[in-house]
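Sequence dictates fold. Next comes a concrete instance:
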Amino acid sequence: PLDFDLLADDVLAAVDVLRSRDDIDDDRIGLLGLSQGGWIAPLAATKSDRVRFAVILSGPAVSVGEEDLYSGLAGDSDSGCTPDNPPSFISSLTREQKPSGFDPRPVLARVDIPVLWVYGRRDLSQPVEKDLTVLRPLKRAGKEFEIVVFPAPVGPTKAAVVIRASAARRSRSSSIQVSATRSSTTAAPRRTTPRSRWPRCAR
């Protein structure tokens, strides 16, 4: 299994490198997390006051096991085939799945910096519907979370537009210094759902 604490420490080491530069404002260093970065960036932010904000693109707010189940059911895998699973079936199984493996929920409850979360509703990797059930209550409870959900998966252009708009609303420059990104393609978490429950791929 991945050592998320170690990965978060790597991120903070990158932040320290930025802080050592005279051309970068220490008070405007944040994290941009893509996919797996949704687990890592918030954890790093809770371990140091050197992180001022975070932007998460298609990052999980649920556990490794929950994300793993959803991505397999939705067809985000290296198998070369796409399961013919109706959305209602995928949604039902994903809702039933209990947290397993690394679970970011306790970490997110401790986050005290502004975070912009950007999703695409038809994401094959992220259970966006379930991610939102975690994030929206935290936002209502007072977390500085901004959540944007596009109808289609998020690409670089859409993400850039949202980031700039959010920065403008906060009266900050859109050229904020950002450190550290990681993608979930760096490793494949261990499957936690019995194979007998996995529908076959469509032929």
